[in-house]
Amino acid sequence: MVVYRSAIFTPLADPFPSTELEGTYRHLDDGYLVVDDRGSIAGVGPWDSLPDHHRDHPVVRLSPDRLISPGFVDAHLHGPQLEMIGSYGGHLLEWLNRYTFPTEMKFADPEYARNVSAGLFDELLRNGTLLTLVFSTSHTEATNVLFEEAERRGMRAIIGKAMMDRNAPAGLIESTEDSYRGTLELLKRWGHHEILRYAISPRFAPTATQKLLHLAGELRQEFPEAYVHTHVSENLSEVFWVKQLFPDAENYVDVYDQAGLLGERTILAHGVHLSDEELRTVAESKTRICHCPNSNLFLGSGLFPLKSVLRAGITVALGSDIGAGTTPSMLNAMADAYKVQQVQGISLSPFHLWYLATLGGARALSLGDTTGSIEEGKEADFIVLDLSATPLLRRRIASAGALEDMLAALIFIGDDRVVDRAFVRGREVYARG
Q1: Using an 8 Å Cβ cutoff, are 76 and 292 in contact?
Q2: pLDDT, the chain, mean
Q3: Alpha-carbon distance 155 to 318, whole Å?
């Protein structure tokens, strides 16, 4: 057992359904966090109420300018695109052909894939992301490498090989049968790992034949513990293209519904241009949507209609969407989510934003009972934030009044330097410097 003494902040419940935020989070100016030998949280509360039976355990006292928070959850990114972050110009389909596909073809080389994969997970940990949902390329061995590098660092990840059998360069397209077999092989190898999970990952409808989508749906039925990860309605040109490619489908969401790919373990990235009918289908199937504000702004895809999505009863997470997203920082994702809603007349509080990037993301990934918040009985996945990481942040925090002002400062002017340490199941997986 180890006892940490520090300021602590954690979301506890979804703040969106109510105008009253009290009870949706917990903040302790001087708190304790007890981590047992199994890596679970054995207790949390005010320091002066530490139970007697924990007082003989070793105590790690953090400095007054530290804050313990749940680790961040990034619910959508492309691992192979790390090295093309910030590639200039073009909307989605043009950008895919100009930058993305040539970059992803390099993943045919396992050593190249290992170098990028190692850099990816190091960057995520450096930014406090402890759980992430990752697209690989269509290369089976490169996807295996992504799993190995996540496992080496002891972080939580849900990873899937991109399933693609049309409308992409020859170096990325597989036959329908090879795409199915490669996915099946990886599912059998990684589908029952202790903290890693597999995502059946048709890239998006335009790069998959109807046959491949239905084979993916069959895999979902055969492996109900697996996730499904794909894209939907990111860009208006993409939506129009899907109508041409799937004339028998009622809409974009229906393409996936007909293939048996919707459900509570399915995460659809973006959803910027969904119709009311599509929102109803997503909600009724308990499918989740990942909002990627940085990417949507960078590619000019549109403004995510959060209010309509939540009103439909859909669970929402946040994602960086590397590499159209220009940073792995979930602080930045929160800041951009705020801005996207602000221009639509909706002001999200720091409590709403922090929920989306932690407990909300974990719940969207069906892991809310395990991680995402600092509560007794959950696994000890947490980060230590440095409130004086930069001169500007130190100055801003010193002038902060209420808790929400401090959280806002972290969101809007914080970056990777804020993350001092990170723990997964009580084991330190990152330490700055």
Answers
A1: yes
A2: 97
A3: 18
What confidence score (pLDDT) does residue 433 get?
83
- Per-residue pLDDT tens for 375-410? 999 999 999 999 999 999 999 999 998 999 999 999
* Kind of pairing between the strands at 2-11 and 59-61: parallel
Q: How far apart are CA 24 and CA 185, in angstroms?
A: 42
User: Which residues of the chain are under the pLDDT cut of 50?
Assistant: none
pLDDT of residue 92: 87
d(CA 104, CA 172): 8
pLDDT at position 95 is 87
Whether cis (ω within 30° of 0) applies to the bond prior to 323 is: yes
The 10s digit of each residue's pLDDT in 43-82 is 999 999 999 999 999 999 999 999 999 999 999 999 999 9
